[in-house]
Amino acid sequence: MLTAFYYATTHLASSGTLAPWIAALHGVPAPASNVEAVRGPNGAFDLSVASAAPAFDEEEQQNIAVYKKALPSVVNITSTEVRFDFFYGPVPLTGQGSGFILNKQGLILTNNHVIENGQKVEVTLSNKHQYKAQVVTVDRGHDLALLKIDAPDLVPVTLAETSTGLMVGQRVYAIGNPFGLSGTMTRGIISAIRSVRSPENGNPIEDAIQTDASVNPGNSGGPLLNSKGEVIGITTMIASNGAEQSSGIGFAIPINTAKAVLDDFAKYGRVRRPTLDIMTLPINPDIAQQIGLANDTGVLIERVFPGGAAEKAGLHGGTQRAYEGNTPVMLGGDLIVGFDGKEITGPEDLSEEMNSKHAGDTVTVTVFRGRKKMDFKVTLGDAKDQPQGPQV
Length: 392
Description:
It is built from eight helices and 25 strands. The protein is an alpha+beta fold. The chain folds into three domains: about 70-150, Thrombin, subunit H, CATH 2.40.10; about 170-270, Thrombin, subunit H, CATH 2.40.10.10; about 275-385, PDZ domain (Pdz3 Domain). Strands 7-6-3-4-5-9-8 form a seven-stranded antiparallel β-sheet. It has a six-stranded antiparallel β-barrel with strand order 10-11-12-15-14-13. Strand 4 (about 90-100) and strand 5 (about 105-110) form a beta hairpin. The protein is elongated.
């Protein structure tokens, strides 16, 4: 008996002979397989080979469906910049990123940092055909760029109706060209919805979609998709702590921001970013207590630009010079605490509300002037026409 037990456990179990018997005991049908003999100069052995390809489960079918739907719309973007070496010889520098097709007329959306400073921009479709691209317009503030190519039979993506209402835990997919490996799809979930600052220009990305889907250099500008294959965001950066590869924390610009940019382009032929024409100082409870403000949070107006939206509406900038560390600031201006009925606790809140508006819109700005709470009607200016310097 001991000999039989030893033989069964060391020979029959390892070879798979017992599998049908064990499956039968548990009421599980054994997978059908064929035995194929392999013979050669070094000997002969048998292989168990499945008699048919396995069926995909429901999750795999969804992954495949998303990939097949979106892949024809995702492009590889190559940007070439010519610099000069120590001996004034031209040295071409090439960068790569991703993008996606918006319509059959050849409009393509990507990140501005993918094509910035590029003297030559080329787009490679999923069918490997390559086309020279024209830069139609850029929005450096939102790190977005609109390209155009002349190509037949283009397949546009499907944009999600809105990125409002996205939930943490929702499944997402990223398709792009990480490290130049075209047509790569990764999957994950939405890890958070938060405001972050772009490393390219320091501007805030409001309601950025944080995901653990693997995102690497080359994914920038590619689509972040929901389980229906609809674009909910534009993959734009990773938190890598200097490793320049995925650490499980990637961020995408929400599609609502991109739609606002596209709406500006459709209406005006360029991006018109709204502005209040002010310089500001963020306020927290400590600062508010030190300078005796009427509210613990908000955005203090340090300066209003002459002829700008805020000055025309009657808002006031600071009149008293002070220092925050070694940085000079102007105190005594209006403290913004509300914008069209929404509470403003800091610059992120104000930027978020501004991103939902257009130049020329009239909004209600609520401020404390001293201890008095006041409302002002402000017609937003056009950021293209405002003076240089840090401002909202």
